[in-house]
Specification:
Blueprint: H1 2-48, H2 56-68, E1 71-72, E2 80-81, E3 84-85, E4 90-91, E5 111-117, H3 119-122, H4 132-143, E6 149-153, H5 161-173, E7 180-185, H6 187-196, H7 205-211, H8 218-227, H9 230-242, H10 252-255, H11 258-280, E8 283-288, H12 300-308, H13 313-325, H14 327-331, E9 335-337, H15 358-376, H16 378-383
Parallel strand pairs: 5-6, 5-7, 7-8, 8-9
Antiparallel strand pairs: 1-2, 3-4
Helix pairs in contact: 1-2, 4-15, 5-11, 6-11, 11-13
Length: 384
């Protein structure tokens, strides 16, 4: 009996030692691997010529900064960006990215424009001065140099319309009332629903579910240690390499399920924001964003992005089409589908399947500005 126990102990000890040796070894490997991948990705971006007036080293610095960004817990939102004082990415103590605001003359009396969205509104892959909100601010200043306007970029990686509505409500509770609210959505609503198999849930909500009450369960602690280990990451990579993604086929069942749920949930949050609009007297604009599947003329590198993510295409097409056909959306002048904004562009716009370079941000800002312009024109107030 003692010999069996001793043998079991030796096996357990050796397995445990092997686990930690492999875990530490893979950890060291992944530090190098991840940093190397960022450099390779930056080289690919440089070769695509998506940045015309930016030197190679600045492009690499910009993507290193994005890779090094971290999150911290935020009640009701799950997380927000940690402060950062990078060369190209500046994030304040409230998790808000810097917006270049040449129109601000007096911040206490400025007309407030709040911009909500995910990483595309945050503008990953762009310098502070070339985010969508910064480009929009500079367009406003050029047309209305005497206006006193402040734009805030609330965009954060992975945020969905559900999260953004909560962000807005938190500001309203603090009596931080905007004059204009811009929502820029579509991509994360579909990604989060696809991975979570449920529409309307925050990105990575399954991780938060697994973490719930982990301090009260040794079983959960062990499971989390395993699932978050480098060994598990290695295993998942092997499985991913062996298996192949197939297109997300829009069959009859899908038409009645996930795509419909995504559309209805998005529309529900639009309705909710409109009720806040009426209660607080601000103006809401809802922009449905472009993505790699909605651009007609793809460049060579954009075709690669398309191929890498093509299994999402059908779900995007069906979800967007369902939203467009909704009677409320088709009649709502504040709902604007700009998914086809890059159709006539021959240059490379995208840096992956949904994020755009600085040219893309400028084009999006110009389109948004064309809808905001009547609201900002001082002559309109005189006429009213």
């Amino acid at each position: 009996m003692k010999s069996k126990l001793k043998f079991t102990y030796i096996i357990f000890r050796n397995v445990l030692i092997l686990f930690f040796v492999l875990e530490i070894g893979l950890g060291i490997f992944y530090i190098y691997y991840d940093n190397h991948n960022i450099e390779l990705y930056a080289e690919k971006i440089i070769a695509s010529n998506v940045y015309d007036n930016l030197d190679d080293e600045s492009i690499k610095e910009m993507f290193r900064e994005v890779r090094s960004q971290d999150m911290q817990w935020e009640s009701y939102l799950h997380y927000r960006l940690k402060p950062m004082n990078g060369k190209h990415n500046t994030i304040d103590v409230n998790g808000i990215r810097k917006t270049v605001n040449p129109s601000i003359k007096d911040s206490t009396t400025a007309l407030k424009i709040f911009c909500f969205g995910g990483s595309t509104m945050y503008s990953s892959g762009a310098r502070d001065a070339h985010t969508i909100p910064s480009e929009l601010s500079q367009l406003i200043y050029t047309s209305f140099p005497n206006q006193n306007i402040a734009i805030t970029n609330f965009g954060c990686h992975g945020y969905t319309r559900a999260t953004e509505n909560i962000q807005l409500q938190k500001e309203l509770i603090k009596n931080n009332i905007p004059d204009i609210v811009i929502f820029y959505d579509g991509v994360n609503e579909i990604i989060s629903a696809y991975h979570g198999k449920e529409a309307g849930i925050p990105a990575n909500s399954s991780n938060r579910r697994h973490e719930f009450k982990v301090a009260h369960s040794y079983k959960k602690r062990i499971k989390m240690m395993i699932t978050s280990s480098n060994l598990n990451r290695f295993k998942n990579k092997i499985v991913q390499q062996v298996s192949s993604h197939s297109a997300y086929v829009p069959d009859k069942r899908l038409k009645e399920s996930l795509a419909k749920d995504i559309a209805e949930t998005y529309i529900g949050y639009v309705k909710l924001s409109k009720s806040l609009e009426h209660a607080h007297g601000f103006k809401v604009f809802n922009f449905m964003q472009p993505h790699i599947y909605s651009k007609k003329n793809l460049t060579k590198v954009e075709k690669e992005y398309f191929k890498e993510q093509q299994y999402f295409k059908n779900l995007y097409d069906l979800s967007y089409e369902t939203i467009r056909k909704n009677s409320l959306m088709s009649k709502d002048i504040t709902f604007v589908d700009i998914s086809n904004i890059f159709d006539t562009e021959e240059k490379t716009i995208y840096i992956d399947f949904c994020h755009t370079g600085e040219l893309g941000n400028l084009l999006v800002a110009k389109k948004i500005f064309s809808y905001l312009k009547p609201e900002l024109d001082p002559k309109r107030d005189l006429q009213n």
